[in-house]
Amino acid sequence: MTNLHDRLAEIRDDFRPDWDEEKTQQVLEGVPARRRYRRNRKLAAVATVCLALVASGLLLSRGAQDGGVTAPNDGSDMVVEVPDDDPNVLVLADGSRVTKKDGERVELVEGASETRMTMGDGRSSFEITAGADRTYFLTVGKVEIETARARFDVESDASSVKVLVLDGTIEVVTATGAERTLTSGAREEFATEGEVAATPEEASRDDIAEPGDAQPAEVREPKPEPVAAEPIEAPAPPKWSVLAERGDWKEAAAQLGSTEDIEEIEMLLLAADVKRYNDQPQAAIILLDRVAREFPDDKRATIAQFQKGRIEMQLGKYAQAARSWQKVSEMSPSSSLAEDSLSREVEAWFRAGDKVTAKERARTYLERFPNGYRTEMVRRYGGVAKP
Amino acid sequence: MSSSGHTYLKQLGDGYETDEVDPSDFDAVFRRYASYVSTIVYRLLGDRTGVEDIVQDVFIDAFNGIHTLENPDALKGWLATIAVRRVRKHIRRHRLKSFIGFGGPAEMPELVDEGASPEQSMLLRQVFEHLRKLATEDRLAWSLRHLEGMTVSEVARACQCSTSTVKRRIARAEERLEQRLKND
Fold first, then answer.
1. How does DSSP classify residue A81?
2. What ipTM does the predicted assembly reach?
3. Comparing C-alpha atoms, which of A204, A203, A205, A200 is closest to residue A216?
């Protein structure tokens, strides 16, 4: 093969596209049209992929076990562990973990190099480990999440899918076809718009139901239509928020006027995102501060505080970022954000030049999270040597 | 695009050297790196079809996530990571379409040097014919290493996995390629 490598190296310079400055300009001019196309693209491709996987025999589903997480079929390459004492947890061979907190079932199926999960209404946590030789897809209604390494929480109901990324990166394709990349600390809510039409994915689950499936009817029964004595019209959401949900941040900013009249916490957080994505970090910070002040008992205030720390860090306001993250730990010491915040706080103190506090907080982190996933970074910034 | 990304770079001031282009200036970044990205995409696909769309998608993705780029010096590598992600999606979609009867056959790669020998052109075609039969991740790792010329560490960063995973994938691809090329 060395000979092949050498021969390929020889022709490498000539193995490239015909691309000059004129081509660059031409393709650049096509970018706006491409953006519009991406916005309007349907999720048909997702349904088609699922159908093809079923046809190829790659999509297999085990009958239900007690508990909320369905394991891959026997004989799969991945060894799966379902702890006896917690049927709502699934631990995969690569260390990835799915935890159903409440609500409907989470189903998991595997292919040769990818794992596909589906989730109904409820809350679940996903921990997809680094280095896995596979890609994980999670479908929640009409929203699809893809990742190779991340920890994230998902909460789903009839109208929306809420995602909180604790670590790593996920990609989200929304119900309208918009694509978003979310990284650590990101919190987004995606509307499930339009009718929930029967998709090939739902049909395929029916087709491949295993005999003896303990609860197939329960899983697949369509939800009853809500019955109301009179039609109740919900107030239309403000235009800027609809645009923001779709990822049209620039257009959303153009529609978003004064933020003083915003009263709901969801809208404040969304408006902060609009400001952030439109390079108005100070304005975003002001809105996030309002969340903490006006909704101190709401768990989302913790997320707002975390986000505030990130923005301050990006602005080079290290001491302020450290204090924001310190507040996260105080507001919610046992939350999933606490470990992340504390580790970031150590770095922020270091960058602010306060190595004494950085060391002190590093020791706190190591005490509270001796097996934490950021111990190395914390030791480095905190100046705490390994024992 | 606004210029606050430029402000962001100035305010950091802790040893970062600003890139020759302002990462927040979409047009400037596109002009600077489009050729680089298109080369990666083309070398991974071996097929001109879809290169322009993928290149546009890469830059749109990059600007949607520009706030996550902590080190401006890493812009080029970051674009490569996004390019690999987009190519991965493209390959899977194309495979699916082929499987269910849609989508035409992929083009064969060409060398820009019209004076290249027939043997060199044939070599490239043979390699791609077999590469396209490999598992996507193995194909990407091997192509980045031996067609794009990246180091193992660079491949790992672009594929967002560990170097040991990269080595495993490349070894698997090598074994299969060697077998198939021998049988040709």
1. B
2. 0.81
3. A205
d(CA A82, CA A87): 6
Higher-confidence residue of A69 and B77: namely B77
pLDDT of residue B65: 83
Residue B57 DSSP SS3 = helix
Q: What is the pLDDT of residue B3?
A: 31
Q: Which of B100, B162, B181 sits opposite A131 (nearest CB)?
A: B162
pLDDT value, residue B143: 96
The larger pLDDT score, comparing residue B61 to residue A169, is at: B61
Q: What is the pTM of this model?
A: 0.42
DSSP A199-236: -HHHHHHHHTPPTT-SSHHHHHSPPPPP--SS--PPPP
- When pLDDT is averaged across residues A148-159 and rounded to a whole number, the result is 86
Q: Is residue A194 predicted with pLDDT exceeding 70?
A: no
Closest by Cβ to A27, choosing from B12, B34, B136: B34
Q: Assess whether pLDDT exceeds 50 at residue A104.
A: yes
> Considering Cα of B18, then B22, then B28, then B30, what sign does the dihedral take?
positive
Q: Do A10 and B127 touch (CB under 8 A)?
A: no
Distance CA B166, CA B146 (A): 12
Most confident of A128-137, A238-247, A365-374: A365-374
Please tell me the distance from the alpha carbon of residue A384 to that of residue A14, in angstroms, as a whole number.
51
Which residue of A25, A31, A45 is in closest CB contact with B93?
Answer: A45
Q: Which residues of A touch B136 (CB under 8 A)?
A: 113
Q: How many other CB atoms sit within 10 Å of the CB of residue A348? A: 28
Chains A, B: CB contacts under 8 A, how many?
A: 146
Cα gap A184→A110, rounded to integer Å: 26
CA distance B81 to chain A (A): 12
Query: Average pLDDT of A121-144?
Result: 79
Q: What angle do CA A317, A318, A321 make, to 5 degrees?
A: 90
Q: Which amino acid is residue B47, in one-letter code?
A: D
Average pLDDT of chain A to the nearest whole number: 75
Closest approach of A285 to chain B, Cα-based (Å): 15
